Amino acid sequence: MPLDPARIRAEFPAFDEPSLQGQAFFENAGGSYTSRQVLAKLDHYYRATKVQPYGVYPASIAAGEAMNLSYERIAQALNVTADWIHFGPSASANTYVLGKAFGEWLKPGDAIVVTNQDHEANTGSWRKLAKLGIEVREWRVDSQTGRLSLDALDALLDTKVRLITAPHCSNVAGEINPIADIAARAKSVGAVTAIDGVSYAPHGLPDLAALGADIYIFSAYKVYGPHQGIMAVRPSLAMELPNQGHFFNDSKPRYRLTPAGPDHAQIAASSGIVDYLETVAAIAGDNVTGADPYRRAHAAMRAQEIALATPLLDYLKGKNSVRLIGPDDANLRAPTISLALSEPGAVVAQRLAKHGIMASGGNFYAWRLLEAVGIDPNHGVLRLSFVHYTTPAEIDQLIAALDVELR
After folding, report:
1. Where does the Aminotransferase class V domain lie (predicted)?
2. 3-class SS at 292?
3. What is the pLDDT of residues 57-85, one digit of tens each?
4. Do 68 and 85 touch, CB atoms closer than 8 A?
5. Strand ranges (E), 272-404
6. 125, 147, 335, 375 — which has fewest CB within 10 A?
7. Same domain? 155 vs 268
8. Residue 364 and residue 370: Cα distance in Å, rounded?
9. What is the number of structural domains in the chain?
10. What is the mean pLDDT of residues 160-174?
C-alpha cells in the first residue's frame, strides 16, 4: 500500500475521538470524515471573518479572499480554471437547478439520455424534462450485473440527443464507468455530458480536462470537506444556459446556476480539501507517479483502496449466501460494496453495529437500479463503503463480523 495508514489517519481528528475508538467506519459513501485542514479553515472563518464577504473593510475583504481561494484551489485540483467552479447547498440541489436550466434551454423534440444506474438526484431531475416535450431515453443496466454497456449507449444516440447524463461511479453497483468514452460519444453527436461524480470523487478528484465532460458534480462532504455541493461546468455552457438566479446577476457566473447562496464559511473551508490532497501526495512520496500532486494523490488513494478491497471481495466471492452488486474485481470499482441478502440490508447493518462496524442498509436513492437488478428497493442492500484511510485491521474486523452475521 502506498500510504501509511497511521500518517493518513493523523490528518483526521475523528480518529482521536474517544467515542469512535474501536468503531470501524464503513459508511463513507454517505459522507467521509472531515480533514483537519478543512476544520481549521472552517473554525478560523467563523471566529475571524463571519461577516458579509466582498465588502470594503478588512474582515470582509479577508472573508471574500478566503472564498475566492476555494474556487481557485478546487479548480486547480480538477485541472480546470476557476470559472468552472460553482458551490451550492448540495449536489442534489445543484442537479435540480441544472435540470431547470436545461428545461429552459432545450427545445421540444430534443432528446436526452439518462441511466437507471444513477442516484435519483442525477436521473429524476432530468426525467422531469419529459413534461416539457423533451424525449427522455433510458440507458439501461444489465439486469444481472448492474453494468452499463457502451454498445447500449450507442444504440440510443443520434443527432437529436443534446445531453447525456451518467454516474462516474454508481453508489450501489460501484463500477467505475468510462467517462472519457461517454464524453467522446456525446461530442460526436453534438451533445453535452453531465456526470454525477458524487460516488467517485472521494476516491480521487479526476482530471476534468482528460475526462472531457462538460459538467461534473460532487459533494464536498464526501471528499473530506464541509456539507456542500460543488459542480464544475464548462464556462461557455454555463453562460449559455438560462440564468437561474436574480435577473441583475445575469452577468455573474457564480450566481447564475446557484440561486440559493451556500454558507460562506463552508466555501472558504473547501480549499482545505485541496490542502489535504497535497498532504496525501506528500505521504505517498515516490510510491506513485503523476503529473501533479492531485494526480499522485488520486493514484495513491486508488492503489490503497484496491489493496484494501481485494481481500474483502475475495471473501465475499466465497459466500453463497450473498449476491454482490457490480464487479468482483477491485480494479474495476470503487470500494462501495453492496450486498443483496435474504434479510433487509438495514437489519444486518444493525447486527454489525454490535461488532463495532458502522455500515448501513437501504436503497440509497438508487431505486431504479435495484428494481433493474431484481431487488425490492424497500428490502434494500447492505452497503459497505470505505476509503483510503481505512486500515487492513478494519477490513479484518469487518470480515470477522460478516462471518458471524451473514445468514
Report:
1. 25-398
2. coil
3. 999 999 999 999 999 999 999 999 999 99
4. no
5. 323-324, 336-340, 357-358, 360-362, 381-385
6. 147
7. yes
8. 10
9. 2
10. 97
